[in-house]
What we know:
The protein is an alpha+beta fold. Helices cover about 45% and strands about 20% of the residues. The protein has four helices and four strands; from the N terminus they run αβαβαββα. It has a four-stranded mixed β-sheet, sandwiched between helices.
Amino acid sequence: MQLARSSLGVFLVNCSASKTTLPVLTLFTKDPRPLCGEAKEVLKPYKNRFILQEVNVTLPENSAWYERYKFDIPVFHLNGQFLMMHGENTSKLEKQLLKLEQQSTGG
């Protein structure tokens, strides 16, 4: 029984170590949000390279983001760092994604 646990433990560690974590692209939005819909359409070709997280700044729990970005929507952060606002800049996104991908592969 101990051997099975040990083998399973090693297997789980090896599986998790080989899995690459995708960066998180946070999209700050508000209602109504036609520009945010357009931004998501433009970003579709990149969708397999990040996890999209949407934050509606008009919700009470996001009031700090509302105060910061109420006139700048849509705003994007990549892995918690400001990336761009007032729309999407695919060349800037591509450059930052490549940089993160190179860092994760050690290249």
